Amino acid sequence: MKYARLTKEQFEELHQEFINFLATQSITADEWQTIKTDKPEVAEQELDVFSDLVWEGVLTAAKYLEHISPQNIHLFALNEDHMHLIGIKINKENLDVTTAEGFEWLRNNLMDENVEFAQARKDYTEDKNQDIFKLIQQGSIITKGELYEYMNNLIN
Q1: What Pfam family does this protein match (any one) (predicted)?
Q2: The whole model's pTM is what?
Q3: Within a domain: residue 23?
């Protein structure tokens, strides 16, 4: 398995897609029930293959990631051959930008001396999607990029 198995909830959301996946392999609903009962290891493999296919599609389509912690914001633009990072560090004690109040303070005080901006460029390894997946495993989420674009316009 290249990525991670989908959760039970994710499989439920993708129920029809999974049926279509099984159908492409000429596996009927009855055959799937038999496989689950008689060959659980084969069923596990099918779940893993489907999970990787879903992840591959999601990661290929991703254009932006965000990772927000109490005093740091990491905004990633996922370009074709590299990722661009905008990092924001807040050096103000007891301020948590993961709360509505903390984020509001940041919005109103972007040029405060307690707010530091940094930028970086990182080329992908030979497996771009694996690089993106690692960031997701570390807590990043896929976004539409509004915050990245706003900050990018502000500092560049």
Answers
A1: DUF6495
A2: 0.87
A3: yes
Q: Identify the pLDDT of residue 156.
A: 85
Q: Is the CB of residue 104 less than 8 Å from the CB of residue 139?
A: no
**Residue 58, token pair as written in the block:** 């999601």
Residue 117's alpha-carbon distances to 5, 10, 87, in angstroms, are: 36, 36, 6
- Give percent of the chain above pLDDT 70: 100
Question: Residue 17's domain spans which residues?
Answer: 8-61
Torsion of CA 22, 24, 29, 34, to 10 degrees: -60
Query: What DSSP line would sit under 80-124, residue for residue?
Result: SSEEEEEEEEE--TT--TTSHHHHHHHHHTTTSTTEEEEEEEEE-
- For residue 54, the one-letter residue type is V
